[in-house]
Design goal:
Distance between the termini: 43 Å
Oligomer: single chain
Largest sheet: 4 strands, mixed
Strand order of the largest sheet: 1-6-8-2
Radius of gyration: 17 Å
Number of strands: 10
Structural class: alpha+beta
């Protein structure tokens, strides 16, 4: 399940609704909440604007969640991602994964976040005292996502 929205979300309510759907089968729930930083690249952030392509973004998120569910034995995964104007400490993203066992749920949640950071079509623009700038992709995010890729075989 995925949602892209301007409105804030209530993690407790989202968790409760997801747990109501599992019929008591889940043995573990793993969640992650991403927040707007107040400082990036040494500068204070006054506001962040997240942009996306409606339709395209939802399809990309659905594909990421489907891949996580195919790789790990999890019951359900929820992604709520905000767009629009956000202030420091605002919630940006929520990922919740339910599973019979914690290891599978942790791995699926981490995979979803790593792929959201590198493969989801979102664009971030930060406003600072010195002006507006687009946020570049981070090498560390790409490196984190790489660990989920199958090893490349070498031709002998």
């Amino acid at each position: 399940m995925i949602r892209v929205q301007h409105e804030d979300f209530d993690p407790g309510r989202e968790l409760e609704q997801l747990r109501e759907q599992d019929g008591g089968q889940a043995g573990g729930v793993v969640s992650f909440i991403g927040l707007v930083r107040d400082l990036n690249a040494g500068e204070r952030i006054e506001q962040m604007t997240l942009e996306h392509y409606p339709g395209m973004t939802e399809k990309a998120l659905e594909k990421i969640v489907a891949e996580a569910k195919a790789r790990w034995d999890v019951m359900e995964a929820l992604v709520v991602h905000r767009v629009g104007e956000l202030k420091p400490t605002d919630q940006i993203v929520l990922v919740i994964v339910t599973g019979a066992h914690r290891g599978e749920a942790f791995a699926a949640c981490e995979f979803i976040m790593d792929y959201l950071k590198t493969r989801a079509p979102f664009w971030k623009k930060e406003e600072t005292a010195r002006g507006t700038r687009w946020v570049e992709a981070r090498t560390s995010d790409d490196e984190a996502a790489q660990r989920w890729e199958p090893p490349k075989s070498s031709a002998a």
